[in-house]
Amino acid sequence: MARSLEGLSPEELGLLSAYNYLPSRTAAIIMLALFGVTTILHTGQAVHHRTWFLLPTAVLCGIMELLGWGGRLWSYYDVLNSTPFQIQITCAILAPTPLLAATFVMFGQIINRLGSIYSRLTPKQYTILFCTCDVVSLIVQGVGGGLAASADVEAGESPDLGGRIMLGGIAFQLAVITVFNICVAEFMWRYITNRPLRPATYSEPELKHTDARGIITPKLRYMLGALAISTVVLFARAIYRTIELADGWNGKIISNETYFIVLDAVMVLIAMYVLNLIHPGPFLYHDADSAVLSVPSQEKINRRSPWARREQAATTDSEA
User: Fold this and answer.
1) Are 105 and 128 in contact (CB under 8 A)?
2) What residues form the membrane-spanning segments (predicted)?
3) Mean pLDDT, the chain, as a whole number?
4) Burial of 189 by CB count in 10 Å (0-12 exposed, 13-18 middle, 19+ buried)?
5) Element (H, E) at 209
6) N or C, which end of the chain is more exposed by having fewer CB within 10 Å?
């Protein structure tokens, strides 16, 4: 730290910093340790279970969080240096976006398991649509973060433009998560109440199912719970970030480190550790009990479904 800053209190140093406070060294060290552990676990689990899609999603999220908190720790020791501030503001805002992409991919697999007849889109379409939106959100937030972080305030440049772009990116991400949650809720409601959008199809001549109703196994039940928790905390984090950026760079929300730790870092930690404990490898992809109902059982269920009743009524009318 520069000699001219010696003797200043943390409050006085905070007034000089871009954070509007002096970042906590203790919090930074704890977060680096926690994010380091979960990132290492996700890396090992992805390799062990061959769930390679988690490397550019969950693992990348952890790496970006480590960079962001590393920047905050650096800022504690050199509070007026703009480089660590630029690192943390860009990495912290972007980090959860890849983790959301992993959620979209896993939900597509769940649709495969339980039956695409209950889904408005195919699993592939869900993955393409929501992951594309996720990438768009990532790019917009990255551009905004870069502009905001690189603004030279001393030269008269304002970070407001970058902040507005970041706000647009995170607001778009919030909208994407909202639509995704609605789609998940509708899918589960249709599955539980057995209200398919279309009939199950079978390949000839073996009559092997292609999209028949699947069974929720105990492992799959845990996986659904883990994804629900992960999605909820990331949704809460997106709400916080949207309000924070809308409040402005000198607002009360962005100037409170406790809000940032609890509503940003802790939310992402919960999402990552939940997926460590209930990993998609053994609980989703390697679930040996992922049987679907047999053709006779499926046909019996279809006869009880609203779609099948409508079809039966139409057939009866045509025969008459």
Assistant:
1) no
2) 20-41, 53-75, 87-107, 128-150, 170-189, 222-240, 260-278
3) 83
4) exposed
5) strand 208-209
6) C
Is residue 275 a contact partner of residue 42, using CB atoms and an 8 Å limit? yes
Range 180-193 average pLDDT: 92
**Residue with the larger pLDDT of the pair 299 and 50:** 50
Give one word for 20, left, alpha or beta, with left for phi > 0 and alpha for psi -120 to 50. left
Distance CA 53, CA 268 (A): 18
> If you search the block for the tokens 């720790």, which residue do you land on?
73
What per-residue confidence (pLDDT) applies to 6? Answer: 67
d(CA 308, CA 210): 18
**Cβ atoms of residues 187 and 111 within 8 Å:** yes
Residue ranges in 151-159 assigned as alpha helix (H): none
Q: What token pair was written down for 43?
A: 């890396």
Could you give the C-alpha distances from 261 to 4, 24, 148, 309, in angstroms and in order?
A: 30, 10, 21, 53
Statement: residue 288 has pLDDT above 60:
no
**H or E segment to which residue 135 belongs:** helix 123-150
pLDDT of residue 199: 74
Is the link from the previous residue into 205 a cis peptide, with omega within 30 of 0? Answer: yes
pLDDT computed for residue 74 by the predictor: 95
Domains and CATH numbers, the chain: 11-308 (1.20.1070)
